Structures are given as structure tokens and as C-alpha cells.
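Workshop exercise sheet. Pairs work together: one partner reads the sequence aloud, the other fills in the structure field after running the prediction. Swap roles for the next sheet.
Pair: D.N. / O.F.
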Amino acid sequence: MEKNETVVAIADALGSSGEGIVRLGGVTVFVPYLLPREKAKIKILKCKGNIAYGKIEEILTPAEERDRPHCAVFSRCGGCQLQHMRYRVQLKLKTSIVSDALKKIGGIEFPVSPCVRSENEYGYRNKLQLPIGRVNGENAVGFYAERSHRIVPTDECPIHPEWAGKLIAAVKNFMEKCGLDGYDDETGNGQLRHIVVREIRGKYIVTLVSTVPEIKGIDYFLYLLDGIFPEYSFYLNLNDKKTNVIFGEQFTLLKGKGFYDCTENGVTYEAGAQTFVQVNASVRGKLYDRVVSLIEKDETVIDCFSGGGLLTAMLAKKCKKAYGIEIVPEASRCAEAVAERNGLSDKMTNICGRVEDTLSDILAKEPNATLVLDPPRAGVERSVLKAILAYGAKKIIMVSCDPATLARDLGILTGSLVETEKGELVKSASPDGKYTLTAVEPFDMFPQTKHVETLVVLSHKFKSVGAQNARVGE
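Structure field:
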């Protein structure tokens, strides 16, 4: 098999990103947007050894599971990978993605529950994040292509609500009328870099990221936004550095109060422009309900990567005491407000700092606590995992948005992965960790994409963690 060769073949499986897998003469070919049992004409783009990558030239026999994508730039934009398959197939795929990651990366064999579905297959995202730049010398608003910073211009996005298309049109109108340019990554020229919108129960926080502290015609943009959002706050954020980070440090509030309150599961909370809130409200509710159901009334809970304190407060309402650890100051301040407004100040302690710097001290005081981990996509820091293994926690509830880093972290906690002297992780021939898995439950937080949220429950092998640690220290 050679590059640029055209072959006709039938896919027999799906890969971890939803791509079709074709096996020909001992070579495994990965083909995006090809479904199992589909016969297609495939052009080989790259071939190395027994692995090749191709693209569909023509589908000769479509599968029953194939669906018509709702998006005009699907396959060019990097946001969605699965719009070509029916939703029930997406759910089965995500269950298998989690199961395969545990086995292949973590060396863990464990039954994975069927993926919990989203109530909305489209229009579910409550956060929109759009780069503004230049494409072929023209202003462009859209999304990045897969694994690149090349903007794919678009007029709408079906996984966002209807207001997303109206906002894109408003940004283009604003730039044209006021003579503004999108940011050029190579030259550093251009005034506008990103537009970010977060919806909080029918209220909106809009942030325009610019390279200059003042934007001409900004009142006109606010006039356009008035016609889109019934109630909103508007920030101008200054980011004049050559960086891939979206926000700079300086936020200037030009309209509204900047924060909004809402109530969920009996907890009133506050969120701002940088506060982390799960992007799918219906699935977030199911996920948080499940987490809370795993907590007993007499337990102490440590909620790591706790964001604006919503989940911490839900836990504090049920358990004896809850700690929340969050590195973003704005989010930590929101969590303090949540504790006060909900009468939980005596049961809810919020700590602003890095989990790796603070967790050991809390675990030393609360060795039989239940630990809730909801880390970023990169997973849990190795130092945090070592602290957990050293000090213990009676039970761990982990929520992860990346099956690969989840499998790695679980491998360390369960002992199926061990660290060599060089710091490398290798599979253990005889796993003997301090924790054992009791549940693995995927949640479809991100329909139409390859991403999946997973809830995992681990229990300590010793009933009394404090007593076990004491024996180890003697």
C-alpha cells in the first residue's frame, strides 16, 4: 500500500475518534467519517509500516447508521467528529472508547456502564468560544480546524443555540462598519482575537478579547448585542501578548454587573466570565445528581478542582463537611458567595490554590474523607495522585473529560500502572494498588463530538484509612 493509492474496502470497526477502521493485507487504515459495514473508495494519504491513514473519495454502500450532518462545515471544522452517525451509535461508541482506554492505556479490565444520553443532541452548549482572525487576507469568524489554529469561517453552529448564528453575524457587521480587523497569529496585527459567550439560565456574559485597551465603535456593538440577548453583561478583555491563551489578565466591564445568579438542585450560585460550568446543563444535572447520590450524610468530602462551588455546595448540603479547592481566584470568590448565600459557611470551606499544594494537608487531617476529583483534560497531577496514595481517602469519585488521562490516573491509583526509576509508567504484571474500581459510568456531555465525560468510583481496600496509614508510618 502506497501514498495516493486508491482502494475500495469495507470498514469493520470504529476508532477512538470515531474514524472507520479498514484492514487490508495486514495494514490497518484509519478513515475519518467512515462507518462499519460501509463500502467506500478510499485515497491513502499516509502509510508507514502496517498503519495507514486515508480519506473517503466516494461512499459506495452507505450504512443504515449514517446520518445527515446538520453543519455546513462538518469535516472541516474541528469541533465535531460524529455528526455523520446516528445518536444511538455515538452512545455505543463512547462506551467502547472508555472501555478500550482503560484496557489499552491503564491495563484495567472493568465493565463500563452504557453511556448516559443527552436530552438534546444539538443546541446543547451554553458556552460559545469563537476565534476572530484573518483567512486569505479577509476577516474571519469561526472555529479552528482539527489540530490547528487555522480558522474555518462559519455562519452558525448547530451544537450551540440559535443565538450563536446571530452573534456571528453581529461580530461581522461590527467589524465591517467600524473598520476593525481580526488578529493575525503570524504578524500580531489586528484588534479582535476572540468572542466568548456564556449562558446562565437565560442570562449571558459576553467577552470580547482585543489586542488594544479601547475599541472604536464599541457602542455600536453593544447596540447589536441588545437585539440578540434579553439580559447580558459585557466585558472587554485585553490580550496583547503572542500566546494561545484566550483571555488576558485585564477585564473591563462595560455593561451589566458581570456575574449572574441561578438556582440548581436547591443551590443558588454565581458565575462570571471565567467561572467553569459544564457546557451541557441537562447532562450536568444528571452527573451531579449521581455524584451526590454516592455521598453519605456522615461523610467529609474534599472537592478538588471545584470551580465556582456549585457541586461543593450540593455535597455540603448532604454531608457533614465539604472542602472545595480551586486555583482560579474569581471562581473561588464565587464559591465563597455560594457558601454564604446558601447558609453553608459552617459546612463548606473554600480554598484558593493548587490542588497539588493543598490536598496533602487536608488529607492529613481528614484521612477517611471522600475525594471528588474533576480535573482538566490533562488529568490529575502525578504529585496529587502520590499524595492520595500516601495519605489515603476512603473513597474517590472521579469525573474526567478525557478517557486517556483517566485511564492513566486510574492505573496509578489501582496499581495496574507502576512508575519506573525514570518516571515512566509501565503496566504491572501483578497489580496491587490501594484502590479498587467499583463503577465506571460515561455521560454524553458533548453530543456530535468524540469527547465523553466519565464518572468513576474507587474504594480504598482498607476500611479505616487512618488506621492503615498509622500502621505504615510505624
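Discussion prompt: Residues 87-104 form the longest helix (18 residues). What would you look at next?
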